[in-house]
Amino acid sequence: MAATPTQPAAPAGIDLESLQRSLRRPRTLFSYVMSVLTGAATLAALFPLFSVLYMLVVRGTATLSLGSLRDLPPAAMTAGGGFGNAIVGTFVIVAIATLVSVPLGVLAAIYITEFGPDTKTASAVRFAAKVLTGLPSILAGVFAFAVVVVVTGEFSAPAGGVALALLMLPTVLLTAEEAIKRVPSRMREAAIGMGATPTQVVTKVIVPTAAPAMLTGVMLAVARAAGETAPLLFTALFSNFWMSRTTPNFLPKTIGDLMKPTASLAVMIYNFSGSPFENQIALAWTAALVLVVIVLVFNVVGQALAGRSAD
Predict the structure, then answer these.
(1) Number of structural domains found in the chain
(2) What CATH number does residue 151 fall under?
(3) I need a surface site. Which of 27, 147, 203, 266 has the fewest CB within 10 A?
């Protein structure tokens, strides 16, 4: 005869019947209901986001083509055109902002963590960085207007870069500070025990170890800066032409190419979205899609670097 399967014996002191009955108690039912409500609330919160993304993809891809990515903006009541100069201008302005904010942020983070962590200067720097994280972007544009535009007498890409650098700086600084703090103390002690100077410890041990996490902060700061509009309205304005004065080269070749109004995707979307002409409105949707893709790429790279640094 085949042996009949038997239920596993319950651990000592546990009644299986009472445990099964506890799953039907009000507390368990309340937990289940709250889980369902939490899931429903999450879906409700995500619905506006995905609806906007769906509309952006549908309307943005309608005029997306190679020509829209390389041509100049069209005039009023003119078919065709593109926003190639705005793409180039966005990358140039963000590159200038990165060149300004990253060295300052990393050097400040190194100072407040390694050379003067308990000084009043370090406390002031931390406080200022935290305050700047909540700075309205339009105030950054006003600051750059007063410091760069008024002094030079020109709306320009460097002025826009300074405004965006002010917004990027606190993210870079605070992220770099946390990355440096996560470097194990034994690595510092081992380097000092081998006779390394404080400068050598920083340049040969701390910075290379913390570099992936620092790059995460840089990517996140770049993603934020690429989508800002208000600072560029006060600093870079807009242009319907390429940055270079020589054709067919469209990249800036001289300082004079930089010191003039510069197109950007964010400002172009702002300008064309209020246009009464259908072609310009359609290009605004396409430019918005391209800008979202650029920001998404920077965010994905930042998250990938964050995962790598965590490993």
Answers:
(1) 1
(2) 1.10.3720.10
(3) 27
